[in-house]
Structures are given as C-alpha cells and as structure tokens.
C-alpha cells in the first residue's frame, strides 16, 4: 500500500482531542495548516506517551542551556470541525526530535500498516511554545476520562468499582466523599 506523505515546515494547527464518552473515547492529533489538515488517530496511551515525550524533551533542553521554564505555553488552534475528507491515519509509531538550528520540535508519525523502513506519513515542525502547549493539552485530554481508583489504580466505571485492596468487599463509588476502609 502506498501512503501519501504530509510534511509541514511550520505547523499552524496542532491540537489533541478525544471524541466520545469516557470509556468509549477515540483519540487523535489534528495537525497541519489551514486548508491542509490531517488526523492522526492513536490509542490513549500513545497520546499520553507523546505528551510525556514532549515534557521530557523540554527537560533535556535545560541541560543544553535553553531555559524552558521561561518558555510561554501557546496552544495552536484546531479546526472545528475537521473536514471529513481530510486524510486520516492510524498511528503505529511516532517520534519527536529537536532541530537546534531553527529551534523547533519535529514530529514524525508512521501509519500502523506501513513497512518498518518506510518514510513517515506525517512530518511536522512546531515551536517550543506550541509544543509545550500541546503537552499541556494532551495531559488535560487524557485526564478528562474516567477516574482511577486511588488505592489500586484501576479505572472506575459509572457503576462504581470493587477494589482488590478491599478483598472484594465494599465497592467504592466515586460519587461518595470517602473511599472504603
């Protein structure tokens, strides 16, 4: 299968979103320029890993003399709604890097059906400010799902949760003010 490649020297649109109800959500990264946008669908864990990778990259830049604490977060807009004819890909693997010459973060994404040695379907470059804003947005999107049990870390559904730490007793309801003893 031949994949079209999308390359953006400067991303003007870069946003993360979740579509659907918690527990049934789908996640994507919307990227591009006005009139030329793509959707990169991914698993929640992939999106979360991307946000963490951006945060780690910013921390690593501190060791090179770039004070990333002083970088103001800037969120790039997303088109709402995304044109249904816009290209869509299911991300198999994604990578980021830093281009020191122009001080931008580079994003690379491969479709899940691509060969390992194939060029990425998506390559985009973003400012440090926009990348920091994307990491913050990803954290918010991921956190907006179902809550996790503070004792075992499992997802709590709308019906509540039977925590293994409670030895199968006293299901914990996230709508009450306290957890079981």
Write the layout of secondary structure elements.
Elements (H helix, E strand, L loop, with lengths): L5 E3 L4 E7 L6 E8 L2 E7 L1 H19 L25 E12 L4 E8 L10 E6 H16 L38
Helix pairs in contact: 1-2
Notes on the structure:
It is a single chain. The protein is of the alpha/beta class and 181 residues long. It folds into 2 domains: 6-145, no CATH class; 147-181, no CATH class. Helix content is 19%, strand content 28%. The protein has 2 helices and 7 strands, in the order ββββαβββα. The protein has a 7-stranded mixed beta sheet, sandwiched between helices. Strand 2 (13-19) and strand 3 form a beta hairpin. Helix 1 (44-62) runs antiparallel to helix 2 (128-143). The longest helix has 19 residues, at 44-62. The mean pLDDT is 87.
What's this model, at a glance?
The protein has 181 residues and is an alpha/beta fold.
Keywords:
alpha/beta; globular; 7 strands; single chain; 181 residues; 7-stranded mixed beta sheet; 19% helix; 2 domains
By DSSP (H or I, 4+ residues per run), the number of helices equals 2
> Low-confidence spans: pLDDT under 50, at least 5 residues?
none
Per DSSP E runs of 2 or more residues, the count of β-strands stands at 7
Radius of gyration: 19 Å
